[in-house]
Amino acid sequence: MKKPAAKYTLAILAYPGMTMLDAIGPNEVLANSPLFKVVWVSTEKEPIQNDLNSFHMSDMQYFADLNQADILLVPGGPGDKAVMGNADVIDWVRKLDQSTKLTTSVCSGSLILAKAGLLDSHKACSHWAVLSELASLGAKPVRKRYIQSGKYITASGVSAGIDMAFYMIEQLVDKRHAKELRFGIEYFPNQLNLLSTYTLPSRMMRKLESKVSHVINQARTRFV
Question: d(Cα 42, Cα 164) in Å, to the nearest integer?
């Protein structure tokens, strides 16, 4: 039986200090579909380390050499600030967005999209610890697993990228294909254990954000 040709090209932006599950989760879902071609591009020409320094990545296409994709996915991680300060990468994100059907992010990757001006006045998700930063960049932060506003889909922290990937398949293909892929990777999370609003009381959220923000900022200094 002839393998169907990929319909959609997904570009995943890799950078030093990225959180791997932000990208690996969606990659595992979408690369298992014959309808998606996954391409990793890097902000660097040399190998990069992930946020935990547990392994390095190499042999990826340089970001500036890719000028078209159906979907852009930007992961988060403590390397996000360095990316936000890289004018060439931010300009590339803006330009690639002009060709995409969907522009997406996981965790603090939404800060990078917002820095590029793509989320102005859009509702968007991010890791709960950086929601105030997202607001300062012009987006309207919400506390959900993921949310779509126009062609922009943003997911909250780390593992939420997997759920976002299945949602993307439902939108671009159909629910049946998403169900087949879910069964293939045996992803059956127990949603009953999640709070129905996917959040905590605002007072508790502010306390947690304050407690964790200095840890995040310290981690960011390793990649600036």
Answer: 22
φ, ψ (nearest 5 deg) of residue 61: -70, 140
Residues found in the chain: 224
Confidence of residue 28 (pLDDT cuts 50, 70, 90): very high
Which residue spans within the chain are E strands per DSSP?
8-14, 36-42, 48-49, 56-57, 61-62, 71-74, 102-106, 123-124, 140-141, 146-149, 152-155
Distances in Å between the Cα of 192 and the Cα atoms of 65, 188, 189, 195, 201 are: 44, 11, 9, 8, 19
Smallest CA-to-CA distance from 73 within 4, 176, 160 is with 160
- Tokens found for residue 167: 């949602």
Helix/strand/coil percent split, the chain, to 5: 40, 20, 40
- pTM of full prediction above 0.85: yes
